[in-house]
UniProtKB/TrEMBL annotation:
It holds the Pfam family CBM_14. Keywords: Chitin-binding, Disulfide bond, Glycoprotein, Repeat, Signal. Residues 1-21 form the signal peptide. The keyword ATP-binding does not apply. Residues 23-80, 81-133, 135-195 form the Chitin-binding type-2 domain. This is Chitin-binding type-2 domain-containing protein. GO terms for cellular component: extracellular region. One of its GO terms (molecular function) is chitin binding. The keyword Endoplasmic reticulum does not apply.
Length: 243
């Protein structure tokens, strides 16, 4: 029962952060600073007079907002979210005890507690003994003769290209799906995405969770308003009695 408030607060935090990210990214940012473009790992904005100017890092580099420079992908966490609204949870492409949260198009990296593993079907961290998790990791050293791909985690058109031990997120052209067997982008009827129905079900569950959170917040606010009204009534009664 103690985990529920923490989960609610986490969802509220990422929802609020996501709403901020949808506004002018340079709002309140000093001139000359660079900020993330959450629609592209290579993209960023240059802030001048409160207005953003879009820019891109050279091919093969990701923007590192903390360091204010274009950096190697293995030094930057970046995951482009397909959906620009709501909150979605996804398994990490390589790690069983990590997960990715997307809130209004902004991604966050989450960690399960020691002894727990992220359960894809429940979108939650569970006891590792009860979760069957198998992940294919990128090789630490690239082989120029062998290109290693990993399947996507949030949509049928997503896949990852291994580079220097880091999975680089990529997407197929519109209308194509990633074919896990042939290791290429293919027509949907040939790719046969194994979890297309599961993705639709997961999105439906996540919508229900978001609606529940909104209702829970409204109830919580009303309860606290009533509590404070009662407290103030008692305080005023005591003040008048003393007079």
């Amino acid at each position: 029962m103690q985990k529920q408030p923490v989960l609610v607060l986490t969802i509220l935090f990422v929802m609020l952060f996501g709403v901020r990210a949808q506004r002018n990214p340079c709002l309140g940012i000093p001139d000359g600073m660079f900020v993330n473009d959450f629609t592209s790992c290579e993209g960023y904005y240059v802030c001048l007079a409160g207005q953003p100017t879009q820019a891109l890092c050279p091919p093969g580099f990701y923007f590192n907002e903390a360091q204010q420079l274009c950096d190697f992908p293995h030094n930057v966490f970046c995951h482009v979210c397909n959906q620009q609204t709501g909150v979605q949870l996804f398994p990490h492409p390589e790690s069983c005890n990590q997960f990715i949260t997307c809130s209004s198009g902004v991604s966050f990296l989450g960690y399960c507690k020691p002894g727990e593993t992220y359960d894809d079907s429940l979108n939650a961290c569970k006891n590792e003994a009860r979760v069957n998790c198998e992940r294919i990791r990128c090789p630490e050293v690239d082989n120029p003769n062998v290109i290693v791909f990993l399947p996507g985690i949030q949509s049928c058109d997503e896949y990852f290209l291994c580079q220097s031990g880091t999975p680089i997120q990529r997407f197929c052209a519109p209308g194509l799906h990633w074919n896990r067997v042939a290791q290429r982008c293919d027509f949907p009827e040939l790719a046969q995405c194994p979890w297309e129905d599961f993705l639709e079900h997961r999105e439906w569950v996540q919508v229900l969770v978001q609606e529940w959170v909104q209702e829970w917040v409204q109830v919580w606010v009303l309860v606290w308003v009533q509590v404070w009204e009662q407290v103030w009534e008692q305080v005023w009664e005591q003040v008048w009695v003393r007079r």
